[in-house]
Structures are given as structure tokens and as C-alpha cells.
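Quick one, T. Sequence first:
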Amino acid sequence: MATPLRVTDPAETAGHALRTPPHNYEAERALLGAILMNNRAFERVQEFLRADHFADPVNGRIYESCAKLIEQGHQANVVTLKTYLERDDLVVSAGGMKYLASLVAGAVTVINSAEYGKLVYDLYLRRELIDLGENIVNKAFDATVDESAMSQIEDSEQVLFNLASEGTLEGGFQNFGNVVVTAINLAEAAHRREGALAGVTSGLLDLDKKLGGLHPSDLIILAGRPSMGKTALATTIAFNAANYYRTTDRAADRGKHVAFFSLEMSAEQLATRILAERSKINSHMIRTGGLSNDDFSRLVVASQEVNELPLFIDDTPAVTVSTIRTRCRRLARQNKSADGGSSLGLIVIDYLQLIAASRSERAENRVQEISQMTRGLKALAKELNVPVIALSQLSRAVEQREDKRPQLSDLRESGTIEQDSDVVMFVYREQYYLERGEPSQRAEENSEKFAERHTKWQERCEQVHNVAEVIVAKQRHGPIGTVPVYFEPNFTHFSDLVDQRHLPPPIED
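C-alpha cells:
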């Protein structure tokens, strides 16, 4: 039987309707009085306190004027403020210069100015929380067709995150001696590892040596032209990292997970690709059902291996950075690691240009939107203290050059992609271009010269067969360079290049 709706008695809500938002005008006036008595009191609150944090607009206006004068190197007192505030309607309505004089007369002590500022800021947060709650209720009642309940939750979480991160009371200078001790502790930990990785493993030994692993709080851009193998390399790294977290004995890493946002491919397509990599079966054969009994048996064995991986896939199209942040936080809350810390070990996003701009991130052009997204992803990496790999497309300028190896300037809508990232890697396969550029005989050359040129082309094709290059074009904390790797296009699988051969220079036409 359905529970009948309970009609609320107006008398019950009368007390709530009369409640005023939390504030403390006395603390605001005491803080302003302390600043006017001694401008050094402003230094104790200027990092976190703004004019709009004051509940009384008059006090906020006075604080703003004090801040401007002090930051310009002038004294802020009743005399200097008179020039700026004696005709201000807001201040005049509160009593004008008499109100400023009363602030100084009522000042108790300068010592407690920081405590007054923290109280003013705390009450501002409480008022914002009340406002946020009311907006959530109103939006839920006035739902629109194009806004789902989940999108409202994500928007609200984003506002709450912004509220928690703005004007934080933490941070500031640290004593260099304390920082040195922390650095020595990190060096000692690295020494004890005896060359073991400091970051998350990519599963590719040569790439791990170049990068030292994928480091927490780093934003790693993995870019390349279509068909170069960006997604294949990303899935290889994701699998290897997840497999490490599944099998490791290291307490700090046990129980961590890998989050993979596939904005281009469906979860089923991505799973098929990973199964093809592990079973060494052509993915096209898996999709079309052209498998032998032995192939199917290998596929079953691979599926059992993959099934145990702590790998989570989200194939929602056109997600925003705030949505990614919300879902990563949720995943971290739902699954704790063995040491009780965050359960996230790696985040992979395929790919950057498919991320949608939220309403607050929409800009005049796509370059500005991409810039906001890269800043958001870097902030996400720092907040969750995990490496974030974001795949990116390259511009067509690559195709116009003789040497088609990518450069940093080839990043599409580059803006701040290069600036915000800690590592930029490119995937390049010369084999792809050679196979599509088989030489044809020119009108002016004889058959012998053509045969010689064609032979050189065939030799070069054999030299670069199944060889790809991971070009580390930027690394904030380490060297740059090229890492040759082995690539099997039939299985879209990357692995180490066992023979460590050095590629000869490209043939000259």
C-alpha cells in the first residue's frame, strides 16, 4: 500500500522561514578595525579572504578599498580612505566617515585578525552551501528536458568542488629545510628500490627507463595521426598497469584500479581489442566469427585473465572534465586500496578532442575550450595524485612534410596542451607511410634506376616492419628521445623491441 503524502503544517516551517543566513557583523567590523589600525593585519588574511566573503556589503566595500591601497604600497586608514569612500552611496548609507571612525574605535586587537578572517570566510562558505542547496532543490523541481538528474548531480558536485578549492586556507611557503628532508626521503626510497620504478609501469621496459614510469600527478599527452596506434598503446599501458595492480605484493599499490574513458569506441569494442591483444587473435576474426576451435579456446583463456583485471571502462560519449572528475572520485570512494588510500592508480582518456565543454567552460573558440580542459585534467591529476594519460589528435600539417615524424607544434588546438602537460609522447610508424608510398617509375628514369629505387624501398620496408617509435618530445622531469617498440598491427599490440636494433636513417629520394 502506498504511503500517503504528508502535508506539512505551515506552523512547522515558520521557524525555518525566519532563519537568516549565518553571519557575524561584529567579527567583520573587528577585522576591518584591526586592518585600519595596522595594515600588517591585512597580510594575515589577504591570501584567502575576498571582499565578497563579507556578509555586510558595506564591510566588503571597505575591505576592497583597503586591499587596493595596501597592494599599491599606500597606507589604508580613515584619512586615505576618505578620498575613495566619502561619496560611495553604500558607505554613505551606513554612516560614511563616522562608520569608518567607529571601526577603528571599536577595534580590540590586531593579534586576532587572522582568526576574525577565518571566521568571516567560514561563514561565507556556510552561506554558499545554503545557496547551493536551494539551487539544487529549485533545479530538481524545475527540471528541463535536456538536463538529466545525473547531469544536475555532476554540476552540483563541480560547484561544491570549486567552493572547496577556492581561497583555501592551506598552502603558502614551506621552510626549505623541511623540503630538503622530504627530498632526501624520496631519494632514499628510490635508492632502496635499486632501480625499480617510482611511478606506474607502462609494461614497456625501454619506455619505463626513459620516463621512470608514469608518475602521480602528471598529465601525459599521447598523440599521433590516425592509424598510428594511439589507442592500441593506451590499452597496452592500461592493461599492463592493471595487471601489475592485480599481481603486486607491494602494499601501497595493492587494490588500485585503472579508469579508462573511451569516448570514441564502445566498451565492447575496447574489450574485443584487449582480448585480441592478449590472445593474439585478429580482432576482425573475433568480430566476424571466423575462429577455429583452437582460437576460441585461446580466447576463453584470455577472457579469464582479463576478467580479473581491476580495469574500469566508461564509454559515455562527449563527457565533460567535471564529469570525469566526478566519476573518478566516485570510483575512488567505492573501492579503497589495501593501505586505505585512494584506489585509483591510473586514468586514461581516449581522446582529448572528444571531451565536451561544460556550460561553464564554453569559450569563443575551440582552442580556448581545449586549454580549459587540459588545465582541468592537470588539476585532476594533482587532486587525485594519479597519472592521467590523455590521447590527442595531431594536425594534418604532418602529412605535408617529407619527414612525417610529429613535432610539438603539430598538436591540434595546441593552446596550452604542451604547456599544461608534464610529458608529451608521439606514436609514429614509418611502415604505415611506406606501405602507402610504393614508388612508381618516373617518365625520365630508365628501368634500371627505378628497380634500384624500388629495391631500396623494399629494404626499408623490411627494416621498419612491425617497428614503431614512441617519441618523448617533452618530459618535465627527465630526458627526451625516441623509444623503438614492437607493434603487431593484426593484434594492435605493443611490446618491447627485443633485438634493440637501431633504425637506419630514412632513404633519400
